[in-house]
Design a protein that fits this description.
single chain, 649 residues, alpha/beta, TIM Barrel, FAD/NAD(P)-binding domain, eight-stranded parallel beta barrel, 28 strands, 19% strand, globular
Length: 649
């Protein structure tokens, strides 16, 4: 299929390193290893190398003892680590994939405290961090020189381990960017002041790595714009890139900064942002530098990457989450199996969402990611079973696909006319339309595995007996929770599902009671505000979207701010009448009264649809329940439990 992807699947040379294609797994913190690569991290990267990625940039490696960014941070501070890193390099090389290392110091951008204590963060100057509320300590010139030496020393160990190249992390407001930015570098010594002196730290780092690593490829990752008023602006970044590019072998362009809530959204941009939106930044840099340029940012399909490359906006594409979602994406593209590619939907739930909890990353659509050792190869069944699956949401679809792929005879029954469960509703919210991709992807997995699907038909005891089923997987989902509260029978009350299925006329003044504080309340508020409604989102939490991954939450809360939606936090629904909604402040129990309300929309969570499971158990029929019919949670748990059920049945 090279004729369909003549740019994406063609080789390229970066410095002295030839790379087989233009697909890059860019550096990302996986939380799969602590200090040095272990079996889990090696298996994770090898899966992407085996799947055809041309270049893997391994996650950040701390270059100095003061570079404590968070837990589970890789380090390379002595010769003792060389064998562990060599194992990682060998695992990638045996599949023809090149491996670069990200060399990293966060400066003031520190996520967590060590041993429960607030850290002493270091920076060029005492300019505070807005996002983490950290006031850093200015670095001495001697410490700066020691950190520069740390970059070189780390590169020397990794070069001996067999890494093909190195990447200096100057993106997202990390330490090199702090030196380059005149608003965070207020120094008056040789490392601050005019443009030339603000470059000195970066130039010294480049020189140290070159001296230590010889002819290996060397690049710089930088935000094309930090997307923040106090961050590096596009013109400043272009000036930096033009100045230092002659000393580098490539540039890797992203967007955003860790330093602010708005800027940090772009570290792992959610689905509400446009595909390939950082390409214009890369394009302007590429036009001004003599080295190859990588661009990263919501590039989730080979077709999108090919378009960017064909348009001359970049030379390679970072497709990190695309490879998290489908490690063999490149091989499928090469073989022309485009319909088989499992496209990333940008939900941020199990990748960066798990990472921010200090957990190993995964993917809601492909739970095998990050668990490569656990799910290396599906066990063949002891005997072929007749398996029925009740429910065509994400849990049931995954279970059916996995069970059938193992060799079982599987039929899935969905009582609605269409598959998808709650994912069908999720895709109807503004900026969430890509969530429907999980339905398409899982349906394709079922088709490839040979699952028989019957829609418009549920399962009951008679059907189970008639089909002579050996086992039943119950994935019947959940229904909206409508509590018995004072006055609800007097008010115009509808559920979130009613609104999304267009079964409700909500009027012009709407209150949304949001108990879960997830994407449903946020999305409903935006959807209704865009139709002209006056919307008040009353959240039983400290903030709207509290249960969502932080970048996703901040992006969608910002959209509500732009639409003028009123957000009330710490608000527990108490009752309603014809034109008022009554709530309680969860901190003080003080009353909150919203008057002149046309419609109260309930987003108060869900109740498990467990009747079928209970009936099967009472009848002594072998069954396993998964997903929301066990207890309502998210798509991540549903698909993971579907994988487990299909694997074990």
């Amino acid at each position: 299929m090279k004729e369909s992807f003549p740019h994406l699947l063609s080789p390229i040379t970066i410095g002295s390193c030839e790379i087989a294609n233009r697909v890059v797994s860019t550096g990302h913190h996986t939380y799969l290893a602590d200090t040095v690569p272990d079996e889990r991290l090696i298996a994770y990267h090898e899966a992407r190398a085996r799947g055809g990625a041309g270049l893997i940039v391994s996650e950040i490696v701390a270059v100095h003892e003061t570079a404590g960014f968070s837990t589970d941070l890789l380090k390379a501070n002595s010769e003792a680590v060389i064998p562990a890193y060599a194992n990682l390099a060998n695992a990638c090389h045996r599949h023809g994939t090149r491996l670069f290392a990200q060399l990293f110091h966060p400066g003031r951008e520190i996520l967590s405290a060590s041993a429960g204590m607030l850290p002493v963060a270091l920076a060029p100057s005492a300019v505070p961090n807005e996002r983490f509320h950290i006031m850093p300590k200015p670095m001495s010139a001697a410490l700066i020189r020691d950190i520069v030496a740390g970059f070189g020393r780390t590169a020397s160990y990794l070069a001996e381990a067999g890494f093909d190249g190195f990447e200096i992390v100057a993106s997202h407001g990390y330490l090199p960017a702090q030196f380059l930015n005149p608003r965070t570098n207020l120094r008056t010594d040789e490392y601050g002041g005019d443009f030339e002196r603000r470059q000195r730290f970066l130039r010294d780092v480049i020189a140290a790595i070159r001296k230590a690593a010889g002819s290996r490829a060397l690049g710089l990752r930088i935000s094309g714009s930090e997307m923040d008023a106090d961050g590096l602006q596009e013109a400043e970044v272009l000036e930096v890139c033009t100045a230092v590019a002659p000393d580098l072998d490539y540039l890797s362009v992203v967007a955003g900064t860790s330093a602010s809530l708005g800027g940090s959204v772009h570290i792992v941009p959610p689905m509400g942002l446009e595909h390939g939106y950082a390409a214009p930044f890369a394009s302007r840099i590429k036009a001004s530098v003599p080295v190859p340029v990588i661009v990263t940012g919501r590039i989730n399909q080979p077709q999108i990457a090919e378009s960017i490359l064909a348009g001359g906006e970049a030379d390679l594409c970072g497709m990190t989450r695309a490879l998290i979602c489908d490690p063999v994406m490149v091989a499928k593209a090469r073989e022309g199996r485009l319909d088989d590619i499992r496209a990333c939907i940008g939900c941020n739930q199990a990748c960066i969402g798990r990472a921010h909890k200090g957990l190993g990353i995964s993917c809601i659509q492909h739970p095998e990611t990050g668990r490569e050792l656990e799910f290396a190869a599906p066990p063949p069944p002891v005997r072929r079973k007749r398996v029925l699956v009740a429910g065509g949401g994400p849990a049931g679809m995954k279970a059916a696909a996995v069970a059938a792929a193992r060799g079982h005879d599987v039929t899935l029954f969905e009582r609605e006319r269409t598959l998808g469960g709650q994912a069908r509703l999720a895709q109807r919210l503004p900026g969430r339309d890509e969530f429907g991709g999980i339905i398409d992807n899982l349906r394709r997995e079922m088709d490839l595995a040979g699952v028989v699907v019957e829609t418009g038909r549920g399962i009951d005891l008679d059907l189970v007996r008639d089909e002579a089923a050996d086992a039943v997987i119950v994935a019947t989902g959940a229904r909206p929770h409508v509590p018995a509260l004072a006055g609800l029978d007097e008010a115009h009350v509808v559920t979130a599902w009613d609104v999304l299925e267009e079964k409700a006329n909500v009027g012009s003044r709407v209150v949304i009671a949001d108990w879960r504080a997830d994407w449903i309340g946020l999305g409903l508020a935006e959807r209704l505000a865009k139709t002209g409604c006056s919307v008040t989102l009353c959240v039983n939490a400290a903030m709207a979207g509290e249960t969502l991954q932080i970048y996703t939450r901040n992006h969608y809360v910002g959209r509500l701010h732009n639409l003028g939606v009123t957000i009330r936090t710490h608000a527990r629904l108490f009752g309603a009448d014809e034109d008022s909604v009554y709530l309680q402040d969860t901190l003080t129990d003080a009353p909150i009264i919203e008057e002149g309300v046309d419609t109260l929309v309930l987003s108060l969570g869900h109740l498990a649809e467990d009747k079928l499971e209970n009936r099967l158990v009472e009848a002594g029929i072998d069954c396993v329940a998964i997903g929301d019919c066990v207890v309502p949670r998210t798509a991540e748990e549903a698909v993971y439990e579907g994988l487990h059920a299909g694997w074990k049945i």
